[in-house]
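Progress report, Aim 2. The chain analyzed during this reporting quarter is listed below.
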Amino acid sequence: MALIVQKFGGTSVGDPDRIKRVARRIADTSRAGNEVIVVVSAMGRSTDDLIALAADITPDPPAREMDMLLTAGERISMALVAMALHAEGVEAVSLTGSQAGILTDNEHGSAKITEIRGDRIRNSLDEGKVVIVAGFQGVSPDTKEVTTLGRGGSDATAVALAAAHHAEVCEIYTDVDGVFTADPRVVPTARKLDEISFDEMLELASSGAGVLMARSVEVGRRFNIPIHVRSSFHTNPGTWVKETTMEQAIVSGVAHDTSQAKVTVAGVPDTPGVAARLFEAMSGGGVNVDMIVQNVSRAGHTDISFTVPRIQAHKAGQLAEAVGAELGSGPIDLNESIAKVSLIGAGMKSESGIAARVFRALADKSINIDMISTSSIRISCVVPEADVNNAVGTLVSLFNLEEVAEEVGA
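Predicted structure tokens for the chain:
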């Protein structure tokens, strides 16, 4: 008997008919002789609706109360899915994150899972029941408060439960067929990948690909839990995310992120400790910094540019102005019309000339590059937001990441 964890996203449980379809799929998995743990997200855009409702009440809701509000969406989904399973003749029990033993730190809105106490789930499985767990949530053992894991947190819930209960696989059901070489909404000819490594998937997720939460991939890699990303609307295979010993393709995909802004602090004194002072201020203010570039020093001064989430751009600008005033630096420039385009591939580690090909291809399309960041398997470029779709399409074509059209026989 295999233990399988299945996670269904908001679109998969978006209305009663879809919930019934999901229940039938879960029932089929259970009747095939498997133990099943199911993780569900809130229905459709329920979370967005709850956030908007809170904003109608107050522009600055308490973080604790936001977590209390937002966890309601998943609780609705879990109960409805359990009801649908009972209607299918399958015994099921729904559990909140805290009832499922998901313990977190104390950070409201972006909590990290610290431990999973699985006795209650295990007992229910031993009774022959399918266990439905509300995703995106847990409880702090220190404060006894309900917490949420941040956007996409149901993915982290699912993979963490798979690790804690030694599942054979964690299936992530979504509204797309799997992981593609680029966003199909930008490049309709993007190719679905049959398999991708944890490292490549982590880079894609961190670079803007929304199909999986980056933290869920980290957990899968740490505990070597195979993740199968697949469609909830049919039974075709999707994309396997797992460790692989096969030789990797040079490039696996292109990701893009239009949710960032660039902050430039001009005329910073080029002395030890200045960068530390600037980014300590960002850290203290809760601003997440991504890419950083420091220019060559001229006459004892330099410019420092860095990217942050666009929703934190104005806060980052205010913090930079405060530090700049202390240091006697020049003006602060805030650019919210940028995008990040990233090329990812494990094969790039042993292939020379990839960066040169990327830069030449973008230059030939008259796309200016503002910033560059690299790792052993990633090249990221900041470009004008207006050029992002062109940049993604250019790189997909450059590295032959499109679906090959089938030839029609004579």
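The radius of gyration is 23 Å. Confidence is low (pLDDT under 50) at residues 406-410. These observations will guide the mutagenesis work planned for the next reporting period.
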